[in-house]
Amino acid sequence: MKDIFVSVSTMRGASRWLPAGLRTLALVVAIEQASAATFVVTSTTDNAVDPGLRRAINDANANPGPDVIVFQFASYPVTLGLNAALPPITEGVVIDATEGGPCQAGAPPRVQFDGAGLGPTNGLTIDTPEPVTVKGLAIYRFGGAGIRLVNNMDSVIAGNYLGLDIQGLVPNPGNGSGLVLESCTHVTIGGTNECERNVISGNQRGGIEVYNGADARILGNFIGTQPSGMAAMPNQYGVGLFGAVHCQVGSTAAGEANVISGNQLWGVQILGPLGVPQVNTIEGNFIGTGPGGSPPLPNGADGVYFFGGPTGNLVRRNVIRFNGGNGVLVLEGIDNTIVENAIADNVRLGIDISPAFAVNPNDGFDLDEGPNRQQNYPEIYMCSAFPPTSGPKGTTVRAQLHSEPFTTFAIHYYWSPNCDPSGYGEGRHYLGTTNVTTDAFGNAGTFTAGFPEVIPVGTYITMTATHPAGSSSEFSLCSCPVVGASGVIHHAGLPHEPIGGAALTPRPDGTLQVSGSAAGSEGPFGVHIGLGRAQGWVGQFDRLRMEPGQTLAMEVSVPETPNGPETVEVVKVVVIQQPAPEPPLVEISTALYTNRGPFQVREIDPNGHRLGSGNVPAGGRYPLPICSSNGALGVAAVGVVRLSSGARAMMMQFIDDGYGPA
Questions:
Q1: Cα–Cα distances in Å, from 430 out to 328, 352, 416?
Q2: How confident is the model at residue 36 (pLDDT cuts 50, 70, 90)?
Q3: How far apart are CA 263 and CA 236, in angstroms?
Q4: What phi and psi values does residue 369 have, to the nearest 5 degrees?
Q5: What percent of the chain clears pLDDT 70, i.e. is strictly above it?
Q6: N or C: which end of the chain has fewer CB within 10 A?
Q7: Cβ contacts of residue 503 below 8 Å, gap of 6+?
Q8: Looking at residues 396-400, what average pLDDT do you find?
C-alpha cells in the first residue's frame, strides 16, 4: 500500500510531512496549537474593528480553547472608553493587564474602564464553565457588578480594583456590586501575596456576593477600605454568602487574611437553609480593623451576621473588633461554631444569640430550642494568675456548666483588659480549650483549667461552651484574675481565719496584713471572713474594701444535717464604684425570712436577670464571685443570693491564688 502524506503548518510557519497513519494525531496537534491564541489590546477605542478590549473578547470567544488577552500601550495608566456593555466571556481566557514578571507589591492596576452612562450593566460578565482569569484591572461605575460570574468553575480574580479607579478613589458610585458569583464552583478571589489582592470598595451593595455554588476561596483582599487598608471606603456590606457551601473566607496562612472593614452595615453575612450544613469557614480575617488589628475601621452593624437559618458554619481565629453592632450575631441558624476569635470593643455584645441585643439567661437542662440551640454558657467562680517569680506559672480558672445531660462540651477561655458593659464578655485574647461532660442532671460539676499564659492583673476572664454538634454559646459573665501572694484585708470586725497557710497580722488601722507564700501549693490562699454572726441578724450592714487584684468569693454553706428551722437568708452584696484612687467598697446586708422548699441558690443582677443557679447539697457550698477590676476604679454590681430549707451560715472569702514571695 502506498503511503499518503499530508502537509501540516505549525505556528512557526514551517511545514512538515507526516505519514497518513499519523494524520489524526497531526490534526489534533494543529488544533491545539491554533487554539492557544494571544490577543493584544493596543487601542482605547470601543468598536468591533480596532484592536480594543471589545474586539479581543469577541475574537477569544470565537477561538476554541484557552486564549490570552494582554495590553500593550506606550505608557500607563490607560483608560479604555466604552460605548456599550462589553460582550459576555463565553470561552476560557486569561485577561492580564499586569506587567508580568516579579510581583510589585502595592502597585495599582494599569488599565481601567468606566461604566458611567451604561445603565445596569456589568463591567465583565463571565458566562462559561471554563476557567477565566482576570488580573490587573480597575472597574468602576457599572450599575450591575464590576465582575459577574455565572455557572463558572475554577476561575481566578486577582489584583483588581472593583469600585475604585486606578488612583484608589471612588468615582461615585463605585459599582452596583463589586463581584458577584452565581452558581459557581471553586473560584479563587485574591491570593497569598499583595499582587493578587483585590481591593473591593465603594460599591452600592455587597463587596463580594456569592449566591449558591460551592468552594469559593476569598483570600487576602481588602473589602471596604482604601488600597492601603488603613481607612474606610465602604461598600454597603463586605461579603455575603447566600446559600453557598464549603466556602473559605480567609485563613491563618501567611497573606490569606482578608480585611473586611469600614462597610456601612455588616462585615460578613451568611444566609442558608436551616438544617442543611453549609460548612463555610470564616477564618483569620480582620473584621472591623485594619491589617494586623489596627487602626479601628468599624463595620456599621455586626462583624459577622447569620440569618435565614444557616447551619454548620465556622467562625474561627478572626479579629472582630470595634463594629457598630455585635461582634457576631446569630439571629437565625443552628450549629454555627464561634471559637478562638479576638472579639472586643464592639458596640453591642461580643457574641449575641437571638433574641438580639440582650444576654440570654441560662436555663435548666438547656432544653430550649432556637438559634444555636440557645446553648448555655459556663459560670466562672474563681480565676487566678501566677506571676513568674517562683513556682508554677500560668492562669487557673474554676467554673461550672449546666446544660444538656450526658454531653461533652468544648469550653473556650478568653481574657480581656475590660469587661463588656453588659457584664458578659467579650474575649479579646484566646487562652485555650478544655472538654467537660455533663451528668444525668446536666451538670459538669466544678472543673478547673490551667494555661501557661500569665494574664495581667485587673483583666477579665470569660468563657464560651460549644455543643458537639457545633453550636457555640454567648460569652459568660466576666470574672477577674488574682495576682500576688499577699495583701491587705479590710475585715470590718467580722470573724476571720487564715486559709492556705496564710499569715494574718493585725494592723493599727484595724485591717489584716496577709502574707506568706503559696508557691507549690494548690487551692485558695487568703482569709475566710464569716458573715451572719447570729441567727436572726436582720438588716445589718458590713463594709469591706477590696484591694487591687483581690477576688471576693462568697460561699453559702449548708449543714450536713439540715434540721434547723426552714429559713431564707437574703444576702445582698454591692460593689460600690469609688473615685480613683480609692479601691472598691463592698457593702453586705442580710435579712432573715421564713420559707419552705428545696435548698437552692440563685444569682440575680440589678435588672432582675438571672446570672446563674445551682442546687447545693447538705455539706456543700455555692460560690458567688465578686471581683475588683484594678482596685482604683472598681466595678458596680449587685448579687442577690436566696437560701432556703435550713441554710445556717454565710462565708466571705478573700482569695489569693497567686505565687511569689510575700
A1: 16, 18, 9
A2: confident
A3: 6
A4: -110, 175
A5: 66
A6: N
A7: 514, 515, 516, 662
A8: 82
Bridge-based pairing of strands 319-321 and 342-344 is parallel
CA distance 14 to 573: 96
Residue 489 grid coordinates = 484585708
Length of the chain measured in residues? 662
* Angle (nearest 5°) at CA 334 between 330 and 338: 60
C-alpha cell at 84: 456599550
Q: Cα separations (Å) of 418 from 256, 287, 502?
A: 30, 20, 30
Helices (H) and strands (E) in the chain, counts: 2, 52
114 DSSP assignment: E
For 358, the grid coordinates are 440582650
Q: Convert 65-76 to b/e letters by CB count within 10 Å (16 or more is b).
A: bbbbbbbeeeee
Confidence class for position 489, pLDDT limits 50, 70, 90? low
* Distance from C-alpha of 387 to C-alpha of 405, rounded to nearest angstrom: 37
Rg of the chain over CA atoms, in angstroms? 33
What is the overall mean pLDDT for the chain? Answer: 77
**Please, which residues have CB within 8 angstroms of residue 192's CB and are 6 or more apart in sequence?**
219, 220, 253, 254, 255, 256
Residue 7, C-alpha cell as written in the block: 502537509
